[in-house]
Automatic annotation (TrEMBL), chains A, B:
Family annotation (Pfam families): GHMP_kinases_C, GHMP_kinases_N
NCBIfam families documented for this protein: PRK01212.1-4 (NF002288), thrB (TIGR00191)
Ranges for domain GHMP kinase C-terminal: 266-342
Catalytic activity: L-homoserine + ATP = O-phospho-L-homoserine + ADP + H(+)
Pathway: Amino-acid biosynthesis; L-threonine biosynthesis; L-threonine from L-aspartate: step 4/5
Residues in GHMP kinase N-terminal domain copies: 122-203
UniProt-recorded Gene Ontology molecular function terms: ATP binding; homoserine kinase activity
InterPro entries: GHMP_kinase_C_dom, GHMP_kinase_C_sf, GHMP_kinase_N_dom, GHMP_knse_ATP-bd_CS, Homoserine_kinase, Ribosomal_Su5_D2-typ_SF, Ribsml_uS5_D2-typ_fold_subgr
Keywords: Amino-acid biosynthesis, ATP-binding, Kinase, Nucleotide-binding, Threonine biosynthesis, Transferase
GO biological process: threonine biosynthetic process
Keyword Transcription regulation found: no
Protein name according to UniProt: Homoserine kinase
Keyword Chloroplast: no
Length: 371, 371
């Protein structure tokens, strides 16, 4: 698959050493990492590819997390999208083409890079890197269903952003990669970073501000176990419709309640208090009460999860997936069975449930072929 | 001062050992302590006094902390109220009398224990302990000005609650002491625990719920420095008027913004990120914009604090005190001078500023005379 590539323009190398994949991945070692974004700065010198091809992975993400609506999200392990990127002399220099999309919903996605999450993010990374002399060909392997509330578009964007960045020596910072992902999210589902942030950074991420972009990585303690039970029904919950269901005005008591639960949620994450995390995630009085009735059976699914021993349950993203929290994998499977049953009995919907750990790494290089 | 007291009724001792003062104080060793309150349970056996007199202290507190409105507060060191309590045979058994109130505003406070913060809390602790055979006499030393936004009523209630509990062997739990303090707060300034919680527990306290009462202690790292610059103007900001200024409905964007800042504030506390803490505290878009205009000069004071190097500034509690954040004591003094000047120039108000550390201990026994 690897294609040997000779750069037509010899780039002038910069003095700063390119960040390696390893360096970036080992960075979030503190409890809280605050990432502040400087103004967009294009690299003054064009980078040369260090790989002829790479394959990357970006995980599924659960955004909102109840009272964390629109500013909190986390990544889940073992579910996500892959992107392969290769230097392709047949692609116009400085541009990106999408050669293949595989997976169950491949046909629903455009191969036009300007209309594809992975393509938009890849183009933005190329632009930020200042790549003008090399064309890339992308192959997208969709592991995530579309419109499920698991950050499908963000996973594609994150995997593509990482893949392109890695090909050119991983020169962009984490925040620039998130900004590239945001460019994609903006086009397909709105300018929000609560999926693409954790898809790139892993773990829990709090979006503190957009102007400038500022992300706070909330480190869940390494020694603690955290499992997400994700029950996805066969139902479409369009983000637009789910957003239209939101209240425009919120009474002060509900504002204070949800804010305090958001604070409790952040505390529970940093402390590794899975029970507290579940209860906080389950406590939303503003968004979930409006959205749950639009997903058949959701109220019963939540009850079933709690009765099954989950510490909490809410809607993942804009739905329709329901997410429950536990610290025990076997119990998670039993909870998942109850949730699937409740979707069927109360919502008349077929559903599937999986139990997944927190993804603490985020988007990553899976394999690479050096030049 | 000590009066020798012989209990007229020999109490039956319980099997459980009474908690000592030391045990209670060393308890909050984890990053987050979740205190859940069981239903009110009166002790089945009447406790015997272990001291003839005690003297306690409870610190000033800063409630709200910007986006933490109505659910977050913290204690500040070196400012507060003292309460002396002694076994007094001249007081009707099971009752409390207030023998003395000292301090600048002593004359404004009632000596009727049913109408005094310290008295109400003391009576509630007596009731919870089941004390029927011993009368107590209280002496209150007000170190805090009234209505300043520094939790004056909570400090009196907390000091009294601790004093009475200690006299009888410190049998009540932290949450029961907070509930006793809440009884007092309810009567004088509303049923809110964001002052009395930290006044009793020290440090930062998040009020997660009231039914049941659930408090989350947020541990600011021991190795980090945190200073509060408290600038108190000669101005009355009645809590009732400040509460009437609040909006009843909040737009979704402001709700999301303030919630995210509340989350960022909690993260900054647990991580010891003083800069992040200051910025989050300074970011309120809901309450401060309504209340600041009611305190002459407040906007200028905030600007002056930030220009002076503070990481953030907001209204302490319902005001009129302004609170700024720094990690350097000397800089704190300079910031305080600027704040005082701004109150004078822009608000035509005389003000005083002090620089205080975070109080990490909360209400405590200062001295005691054993029986």
């Amino acid at each position: 698959m690897a294609i040997c590539y000779q750069s037509p323009f010899k780039p002038i190398t910069t003095l700063s050493l390119p960040r390696t994949h390893q360096t970036r991945k080992t960075r979030p070692c503190g409890v809280v990492v605050v990432v502040r974004c400087s103004k967009t700065q294009l690299l003054s010198t064009e980078p040369e590819p260090v790989f002829t091809s790479v394959r990357s992975f970006a995980p599924a993400t659960v955004a909102n997390l109840g009272p964390g609506f629109d500013f909190l999200g986390c990544a889940v392990d073992g579910l996500g999208d892959h992107v392969s990127a290769r230097v392709d002399p047949s692609v116009h220099p400085g541009e990106v083409s999408i050669s293949e999309i595989s997976g169950d919903n491949a046909k629903k996605l455009s191969k036009n890079p300007l209309w594809n999450c992975a393509g938009i993010a890849a183009i933005e990374v190329m632009r930020r890197l200042g790549v003008r002399s090399v064309g890339l060909s992308l192959s997208l392997e969709k592991g995530l269903p579309l419109g499920s509330g698991l950050g499908s578009s963000a996973a594609s964007a994150a995997a593509a952003a990482i893949a392109v960045n890695e090909i050119f020596g991983a020169r962009l910072s984490t925040e620039e990669l998130v900004l590239a992902g945001l460019k994609s999210e903006e086009k397909v589902s709105g300018y929000h970073a609560d999926n693409v942030g954790p898809a790139i950074m892993g773990g829990f991420v709090l979006i503190r501000s957009y102007q400038p972009l500022e992300l706070v990585s909330l480190k869940f303690p390494a020694e603690k176990e955290l499992f997400f039970v994700l029950a996805s029904p066969d139902f479409e919950a369009p983000t637009k419709k789910m957003r239209a269901a939101l209240p425009t005005e919120i009474g002060m008591p509900h504002h204070v309640w949800n804010s305090s639960q958001a604070g409790a949620l952040v505390a529970a994450v940093l402390q590794g208090d899975v029970e507290g995390l579940g209860r906080a995630l389950s406590s939303d009085k503003i968004v979930e009460p409006r959205r749950a009735p639009l997903i058949p059976g959701m109220a019963a699914v939540k009850r079933a999860a709690i009765e099954g021993g989950a510490f909490g349950c809410t809607i993942s993203g804009a739905g329709p997936t329901a997410v429950a929290i536990t610290d025990d994998e076997a119990r998670g499977r039993a909870i998942g069975e109850r949730m699937v049953e409740a979707f069927m009995v109360e919502g008349k919907l077929r559903a599937e449930a999986v139990v997944r750990r927190l993804d603490r790494v985020g988007a990553r290089l899976v394999s690479s072929i050096p030049r």
